[in-house]
Amino acid sequence: MGEIDISAPFQSVVDAVSLFGEGIFSGEKTAIKKPKPHSVERVVAKETKLHLAQNELNKLKEQLINADTTKAQTIVELEMAKLIVEDLTQKLKTHNVLKDIAIMATESAKYQAKQFEETRNSESEGNDVDLGTARVQYTTAVTELYAAKQVLRKIWEEHNASVEAKDLATEQEAKAENFANVNMERSGELSKEIAILQELIQQDKQKQSYKARPEESAKKLLALKRSLNPEVNKNLETQLVGIISEIEALQKEMEKSKGFRSRFCEDHYYDAKESLVETLKIELENTKREHLEMKERETGTESTAGNLHVKLRKAKSELEEAFAEEAKLSGVSDEMISTIYQLSLESESAKHEVEETKRNTEELKKEAEVAKIELEAAETKLKVALNEAEEVKAAAARALNQISMLSEKINAACSPTSEPSAQITISRVEFEKVAAAIAQVETVRASDEEALKKLEASQKEIEDMKTANHEALKKAEIAEAAKKAVEGELRRWRDREQNKAVEAASQVLAETEKTFESSLQNYQIRKYKSAEEALET
User: Fold this and answer.
1) What gap in Å lies between CA 96 and CA 88, rounded to an integer?
2) Which of 208, 227, 246 is the last residue of a domain?
3) Is 195 within 8 Å of 46 (Cβ atoms)?
């Protein structure tokens, strides 16, 4: 029989025993454990759960991206709304002043319309047609005013709708933020669950690998059993018995060395004890010295700690002041936003009032043109009345000539030689002519007086209309000039106020930043110094 090489599978018998156990020599068959079939199903189920969780996580990520996009859109809309509010604030003060001007102009226009209607009512029956046209114009103006009010109401409704849309946008933004936060929390929970599932899957894989190892070792063991001969096993047993005897001999030698070591230790114990006492004395003195130094340092650190505590209180007070200033600034900003909103509403109302004043001025201009036309008609009537008066004067002159001629005839008929008691006798025809001439002269005088009265009344009416027209034009010019002046002044005032507000806000922000940075730097320096002192101690 040839020699068998046993160095390849293991190096010693002890290794073989520890590797294969006592079952090799006892002849017992190792039970091969087969993996349970339901562990694979468990892994598959967990992998499916992981896949579903990943799909749900992807869906939540998409929802989170959509929420971010909606949030960005709402932020852009809010920025646009803020810009619109700023534009409206710039036009605010001008509209407030124009509001007062519009109210004054409307009151003056109403007064002029009332006065014009009274003057129309005081005219003669011949001017009823003009009064009717004026009433028609007045009714058309009233209808136009009603239509303008309807348009104003629609604009106001649109403004309210825009405000509601803005509120809805803010609510949607808040909902989007809440939804995003919920999605973030849900995604975090899902990521945690996915991590747990991955860990469980890894553990199952490790368990399967651990379960597979005994099978491999059992297979290797069977292969080794088949490769080894019984003679080799006997040789191994003999070698094992020899090794055990050697181990017992080594144990005996170790017990002998322990006794020798104990004697050697007793000899050196006394010397070590004395040297240890000396070293302990030296260490005691060093510890006393260090204790005194530590006390001194403690006193110093207590003083520095007190100083640091005072500085910390100062820093806390400075931080509280900075936070209070920041809260004040936020309150001021909220008040500014509310005032800007109110100013925007007032600016819209002032816009409509300015439009109404423009319409009223246009109506006054139209009425002035109508008054001019009526004035021209009155002037033509005055010319006709003057012509009639001239004709009446001519008729009166003719009648006076006739009367003078009749009187001359009467004087010629009466001789100077006649008796004073004699009666003048004229024919009936001549008497009737004289009576008719006298009546004609009286009628001419009466018509002349009436014509003069009408002429004076028409002249007075023309003068009144001229003055009213002149006053209306003057008021319109004054309103236009005041409007331009107010717009320029308000533009300058707005620029000044904006510059002042910007400067004040920048100063306040700079001061708050400086105070906060200085307090923060002081706090950091103090903290660093305290840390250095603590490290030194």
Assistant:
1) 12
2) 227
3) no
Return the structure tokens found at 200.
């469980």
- Cβ atoms of residues 459 and 382 within 8 Å: yes
487 and 403: one domain? Answer: yes
Query: Cβ neighbours of residue 463 under 8 Å, at least 6 residues apart?
Result: none
Alpha carbon separation from 532 to 293, 302, 310, 528 (Å, rounded): 18, 15, 18, 6
Least Cα distance to 169 among 65, 89, 72 occurs for 72
Give the separation between CA 251 and CA 201, rounded to whole angstroms: 50
Question: What is the rounded CA–CA span in Å between residue 74 and residue 437?
Answer: 100
Question: Please, which residues have CB within 8 angstroms of residue 396's CB and are 6 or more apart in sequence?
Answer: 441, 444, 445, 448
Closest C-alpha to 121, from 132, 137, 110: 132
What string of H, E and C letters represents the secondary structure of 133-173?
Answer: HHHHHHHHHHHHHHHHHHHHHHHHHHHHHHHHHHHHHHHHH
Residues 146 and 251 in one domain: no
Average pLDDT, the chain: 65
Residues 529, 392: Cα–Cα separation, whole Å: 121
- The answer to whether residue 106 is domain-embedded is no
Tokens 């009433």 map to which residue? 135
DSSP, residue by residue, 430-497: HHHHHHHHHHHHHHHHHHHHHHHHHHHHHHHHHHHHHHHHHHHHHHHHHHHHHHHHHHHHHHHHHHHH
Instruction: Tell which wins on pLDDT, 5 or 179.
Output: 179
Other residues' Cβ atoms within 10 Å of the Cβ of residue 322: 20
Determine the Cα–Cα distance for residues 205 and 40; give it in Å rounded to an integer.
9
Sorted by sequence, the CB contacts under 8 Å of residue 102 that are 6+ apart come out as 350, 353, 354, 356, 357
pLDDT tens for residues 128-168?
A: 545 556 566 656 666 666 666 676 677 677 666 766 766 77
The DSSP code sequence of 31-77 is PPPPPPTHHHHHHHHHHHHHHHHHHHHHHHHHHHHHHHHHHHHHHHH
Same domain, 487 and 519: yes
Count of domains forming the chain? 2
Q: Smallest Cα–Cα separation from 166: which of 225, 106, 83?
A: 83
Secondary structure (3-state) at 270:
helix
How far, rounded to the nearest angstrom, does the alpha carbon of residue 208 sit from its chain's CA centroid? 60
Segment 395-427, tens digit of pLDDT: 767 767 776 776 676 666 654 544 444 445 556
Which residue segment(s) compose the domain that 223 sits in? 37-90+123-227
Check residue 422 and give its pLDDT. 44
